[in-house]
């Protein structure tokens, strides 16, 4: 347990210091493999083929990682590397902060282009509030997925756990859409992501509340999350919106269709500076988790 905690602390530090690898990121190669599987197996009305594709994409790599971490000395270092590659804390900053800067400079076309890279909604007609809201929602949700859930599964099952989670989460981002192409084929990917994120999402909702406006974060989580379609994004974004004292949710255009989403949070509409506040909330929550890790590591040596 002590070695696992030390690996977790080092993995978080590496993400903070180095950020996401610019070249040769393993997830790029994984994305190509996933596209190949989808082209070969995606057939209309075939949940079974989607389940097979999920297994072929996730399980072999997870088993390889399980075998490698059993090796003396190398296994521990490899575990640290796996966690570092699966964490996306600095990547979140690298994608969201330029949007805030573009908005502050009044460059709406650039802000729309940048936010379009991190959200699936149509961004071509968004104003400053719409861009800021979309970015804040992405920061809160992806903070949960790419940082805290990855750390949770690493602490629970080590490197195989974080790799299984990260690959599954990536499949949900690629296949988990309610479109004719993915409605059935991507159902297993979407449900597996729901299961793997269930506990981490609630820990994140609590963390966001503790690191922001506690009473509003908890209130919005308790009263608004259930109305959201996603069982995990609802608690995370409701608590985050309340903690930041912002209004999120509402109408958005997805795949050419206007979708009326339940309102989240309480307070003012989002502005450029709220993107930076959302990043600070994620960072404070990560500091909270890191302090707990250090305390647990210290207790294991007492």
From TrEMBL:
Membrane topology field: Multi-pass membrane protein
UniProt keyword annotations, A-Z: Cell membrane, Cobalamin biosynthesis, Membrane, Transmembrane, Transmembrane helix
Pfam family, one: CobD_Cbib
Pathway(s) served: Cofactor biosynthesis; adenosylcobalamin biosynthesis
Superkingdom to which the source organism belongs: Bacteria
Coiled-coil stretches noted in the UniProt entry, renumbered to this chain: none
Transmembrane intervals: 51-69, 76-96, 146-165, 281-299
Localization of this protein: Cell membrane
InterPro entries assigned to the protein according to its UniProt record, in alphabetical order: Cobalamin_biosynth_CobD/CbiB (IPR004485)
Family the UniProt entry places it in: Belongs to the CobD/CbiB family.
Functional description taken from the UniProt entry: Converts cobyric acid to cobinamide by the addition of aminopropanol on the F carboxylic group.
The protein's name in its UniProt record: Cobalamin biosynthesis protein CobD
Species this protein is from: Pseudomonas neustonica
Lineage, opening ranks: Bacteria, Pseudomonadati, Pseudomonadota, Gammaproteobacteria, Pseudomonadales
Name of the gene: cobD
